[in-house]
Amino acid sequence: MATALDIAKHNTNAAPVAVTESARAAGKDALAAEKLAIEKKADFTVEAARQSSLVGLTRDELKDKLAEIGVPEREQKMRVAQLWHWIYFRGAKNFDEMTNVGKGLRAALAEAYTLARPQVVSEQVSKDGTRKWLIRMPSTGPLDKGAEIECVYIPETDRGTLCVSSQVGCTLTCSFCHTGTQRLVRNLTSAEIVAQLIVARDCIGDWPDATPPEGAFVPSDGGRFVSNIVFMGMGEPLYNTDNVVAAISVLSDSEGLSLSRRRITVSTSGVVPQMERLGTEANTMLAISLHAVRDDLRDVLVPINRKYDIAQLLDACRAYPGLSNARRITFEYVMLKDVNDSDADARELVRLLKGIPAKINLIPFNPWPGSKYECSDWERIERFSEIVFRAGYASPVRTPRGRDILAACGQLKSETEKLRARARMMAEQGIGAEGVYALGDAE
Ligand code: SAH
Ligand code: SF4
């Protein structure tokens, strides 16, 4: 996957998104935005309970699994603690490793469950050390070959950041984002979100007693190989808040994966009604995909703006729980040539953010096959950054990482091409193709 050839093939097969594509062609024209759907329909949600692997489950889910195989209630909490340590602290792949769990229970667990990880279909390593994995989730039924998502590891000398996906594809249709063109969409379960970190740690040898692969670039400061997590892969995390919040509880649990909530950042395109909940229940850092300072332009670039406009979005930012100068909101701003990169835009950005503890991340636009925009010239980005800097913001221009393997922001798109969920459900229930086409996309 993710070879230039594959992606080209994907694009030529893009008949189902033709309407969106033609609207995209009119990219910079606000009027065209009227015809551009704000979002596609999410196809379906998978129940975590269908998975037989214990990897990625929350404490409550593990407890249920133990109850299912007859572990008495009075023992369950202690057993969950043991499983937790083996799965999330040691990275166990086999129940036999769990030496403090009795042989009988180990056998019962192995009979009923696995510690299998989602399958790594491919791994690509960029010249700069960035790694991108295509991960296939277990099948959810006889006609499902398993949803595919991408996950990216970005090592630096003093930290390692894992960029995780929250959905397969994205229901939103931001006009500069590759993921937004993917048609099939479903929410990932919390276990599928957590499993991305497990897979990454397997691949880079980041467990006690494991070693990184020969020549791998990992942080050299003696710290953890994955120290930070950003929800900036595929999908809109706040359209899957329940699972994202549950996943964060597992990722940050101090007896297991133990990531600091201050080092977990959730990026949203601006799902205003969910922002407070994220702050209260997950207590993570927040990033906002702002990208434009005027509603007419943001309506086109980030169409959810037509539901929640810039003023509403910034009000929700001001109200974000725990906001302080030590815990700033990151505003992401993609630099699009002649679209949003003028001096006036930079000045308006500074004016809008006044009073909000903020960081500004300028992101050079990453092109993808078929994209309609160009990245701003370097001098323009510097000039923009200078204006922002003079206003008192450190404005790092985020160096694109892993561009050569299409792993940079907004370049992610998996090849999950299957029967649509509805078609699959109908086929599983014995309803034929006529029924599928009759219902079709009319809804
Ligand atoms: N859906 C969420 C999180 C995933 S996108 C969101 O939109 O915030 C992660 C970041 O990459 C967002 O800021 C997004 O706007 C940005 N992005 C998307 N496509 C891009 C592209 N082609 N070049 C640069 N950044 C892009
Ligand atoms: Fe979805 Fe974010 Fe891409 Fe917009 S930028 S289409 S919200 S992944």
From TrEMBL:
InterPro entries assigned to the protein according to its UniProt record, in alphabetical order: Aldolase_TIM (IPR013785), Methyltransferase_A (IPR040072), RlmN_N (IPR048641), RNA_MTrfase_RlmN (IPR027492), rRNA_lsu_MTrfase_RlmN/Cfr (IPR004383), rSAM (IPR007197), rSAM_sf (IPR058240)
Descriptive protein name: Dual-specificity RNA methyltransferase RlmN
Binding site for [4Fe-4S] cluster: C170, C174, C177
Enzymatic reactions: adenosine(2503) in 23S rRNA + 2 reduced [2Fe-2S]-[ferredoxin] + 2 S-adenosyl-L-methionine = 2-methyladenosine(2503) in 23S rRNA + 5'-deoxyadenosine + L-methionine + 2 oxidized [2Fe-2S]-[ferredoxin] + S-adenosyl-L-homocysteine; adenosine(37) in tRNA + 2 reduced [2Fe-2S]-[ferredoxin] + 2 S-adenosyl-L-methionine = 2-methyladenosine(37) in tRNA + 5'-deoxyadenosine + L-methionine + 2 oxidized [2Fe-2S]-[ferredoxin] + S-adenosyl-L-homocysteine
Miscellaneous: Reaction proceeds by a ping-pong mechanism involving intermediate methylation of a conserved cysteine residue.
Subcellular location: Cytoplasm
Entry's family note: Belongs to the radical SAM superfamily. RlmN family.
PROSITE patterns assigned: RADICAL_SAM
Keyword NADP among UniProt keywords: no
Protein's UniProt keywords contain Iron-sulfur: yes
Active site: residue positions: E150 (proton acceptor), C409 (s-methylcysteine intermediate)
Database matches in PANTHER family: 23S RRNA METHYLTRANSFERASE, RADICAL SAM CORE DOMAIN-CONTAINING PROTEIN
Residues that coordinate or bind S-adenosyl-L-methionine: G235, E236, S267, S289, L290, H291, N366
UniProt enzyme class: transferase
UniProt EC number: 2.1.1.192
HAMAP family cross-referenced by the UniProt entry: RNA_methyltr_RlmN
Note accompanying the cofactor annotation: Binds 1 [4Fe-4S] cluster. The cluster is coordinated with 3 cysteines and an exchangeable S-adenosyl-L-methionine.
Single GO BP term: methylation
Pfam families in UniProt: Radical_SAM, RlmN_N
Domain Radical SAM core: 156-406
Function: Specifically methylates position 2 of adenine 2503 in 23S rRNA and position 2 of adenine 37 in tRNAs. m2A2503 modification seems to play a crucial role in the proofreading step occurring at the peptidyl transferase center and thus would serve to optimize ribosomal fidelity.
Gene3D superfamilies: 1.10.150.530, Aldolase class I
Entry keywords, A to Z: 4Fe-4S, Cytoplasm, Disulfide bond, Iron, Iron-sulfur, Metal-binding, Methyltransferase, rRNA processing, S-adenosyl-L-methionine, Transferase, tRNA processing
Listed cofactors: [4Fe-4S] cluster
GO molecular function: methyltransferase activity
